[in-house]
Predict the structure.
Amino acid sequence: MRCLTEGISLPREPYFAGPGIDRADALRNRPEAVAALLGQPDARSLGWDSGAPKIDSTGGLVWGAVSGDEQLFLGLDDGAPRFASLPAADDAVGPRARFAILGQLDAVDAPLFAAALSLASWHQRHAYCSLCGSPSNIIRGGWARRCGSCNGEHYPRVDPVVIMLATFDDRLLLGRQPQYPPERYSALAGYVEPGETIEAAVARELGEEAGIAVTDVRYITSQPWPFPSSLMIGCTATATGDALTIDRQELDDARWFTRNEVAGALAGEPNAAFLAPPHFAIARTLIDHWLGDA
């Protein structure tokens, strides 16, 4: 797999990417330091609304006074401590609400939104030790849990997902899933399986979903995706042919689009060949990059 090098333009930074704030990892193993931060007058805790970090009318995150026993230490914002409580166990954001939330969220706050939501979601799903089944407790400022019975330690997981564009003769392969809005086409994607490389996952997913063989897999960029906690690994690949065999259990359709058709879709033309992915999707970043790399 080849990374971007000379002569190839870098893509714009994907939505949710970036450090957000100083995560202050060195403080996590110092409970007394985290407790002192909780008591600082400039400490703030992230609010929650329908299982997701609360945002205001301008798209910014909503912060309030620190309250409650279990606070997740998110880091330092210009030295000011930032925490998040845990949302109620039955307060989970639904799939339909995801895109409405992201359509309102300010991109500046998106990295912190992603970190807080992924971390809180992990705690909701991992209250019990996977080794012995006993209840576990929050440690390291919320970045790990320890079993109260066997002392096993558990850390937040991230699920790797490949998302890729296949090209052939200056055309781009895009597909649509049943849950997409009408006419939307996007990049194909799938989870990396155990014992599999990124390159192998790209080739396997394109073979399974579209029936094509590919070469020259290239890594382009990545994006944290906090629903609940994935790392989207954006790649491109070159198809050896354009004949498609579509897995109709995974996709409603898949098609090759010309560069002009892709440009029209990204421009939002009224008679565009398809509806482009939204700005916050890494698929949009990959398509933008491909279109600009003529």
